[in-house]
Amino acid sequence: MIENMAWSSVWPEMVLLVMACFIAMVDLGVRSPRRTLTYVLSLGTLLVVAGLAASQAMDGKTLYAFGNMVVSDSMGNWLKCFAALSVAVTLVYGRPYAGDRGMLGGGEFFTLGLFSLLGMFVMISGNHFLVLYLGLELLTLCSYALVALRRDHANATEAAMKYFVLGALASGFLLYGLSMLYGATGSLELGAVFKAVASGQIKHQVMVLGLVFVVCGLAFKLGVVPFHMWVPDVYQGAPTSVTLMIAGAPKLAAFAITMRLLVEGLLPLAIDWQQMLAVLAVASLLVGNLAAIAQTNLKRMLAFSTISQMGFMLLGLLSGVVNGGTSSAANAYSSSMFYVVTYVLTTLATFGVILLLARDGFESDEIADLSGLNQRSPLYAAVMAVCLFSLAGVPPMVGFYAKLSVLQALVSTGTHWALWLAVFAVMMSLIGAFYYLRVVKVMYFDPPLTATTVSAPLDVRVVLSINGALVLLLGLMPGGLMTLCAQAIVRTLGS
Predict the structure, then answer these.
(1) Which of 54, 221, 375, 459 is deepest in the core (most CB within 10 A)?
(2) Which domain, by its residues, includes 182?
(3) Residue ranges of the alpha helices (H) in 358-478?
């Protein structure tokens, strides 16, 4: 159902914008070093916004607003809901860590987190090149500032500089590609671009050249090879609470902008961009898994793991159109959506444990720092083990079903190249299992380096326990989330 409405389609964005500005003002009068009032207001805002997005998603309507520049559909609203919850969990995990390192002094950790989420919302809702780019820049500018939040920390400053320089380059790629698409089609709106490309009256060479630049820009935001250079350095150099802010919710927005541009705007060019995604996926799976084996730093290892996981997610996106037919599109794109949602869920818990183990003056970001964790805290060792098994794709964790759904979408295309891609992906997953299981071995079989017990605030313990349980429960009963993703994609494609 398509309706032209304005304000009702952007309720989550409006509430988030107003509350982010209000919280920034209120924080000026907060004297608590832990910023308790700012923290509570931020969490309350995120939960309300997540509820608004979920209610709109369950309504099932597709609303276009502001001259078709903005769209509110089922896929976008569910992604907004999950992104808001991800940022909320990130704030819960990151607050003790940030407080111990003097990062809560001005409340920027919370307000920048809210504004970065607003950028994600705009990216998810964009139905227009300029709106998508505006959301992308709001997210990335907030991310640069968050990485550099510890101004007295050389590694964080270096990571922020690398992120800024490479991010500016990638934004230039994307903007140049979008300008070429605009020049070729004469429109900035995705629906009009789709119609112009489908008409077949536009020079194919111009469109493909613009498409190359667009895919390069998207590849940087996803962090896939060969545009992955920033990922390990930023993950390792940034404060761990900020690393989680970058590693979690933004992946949902990156998936959304990829869907908006490539599927909703440029689906008639699928034969071209699917080949590009295939190269990116193969390179990411190969480089990500092989490079991760050599890492001793846990955050850097998880960075290369992210590269390979995003490569796996691309396998779903590139199997939507087969020989010009779109019969497998809903199955393929819903498998990718399921994959990215479960990946973010697992990443939150993984970094939650790392943040939990960090103490004032001690980062706990080396693999050796987890030695004997089971003897010090069986619960947190179990949560970490469940997450690592999920990332490795070991049943019955949710990561296994995520990988299985992508492979099923790939194989169901019935083409030889898809079958070979699936075999290659399984082989890379077997290699990847080594470095995940190595960490489990260190936690359970190596003697502890310290006798220090692991303590955490009540909110962190509760959220981390729920987070870890969800990774296991969704693996045992994946049907509900799979159905949700499938329905969201079908409704979005149908609009």
Answers:
(1) 221
(2) 2-494
(3) 373-376, 378-392, 398-411, 416-445, 458-476
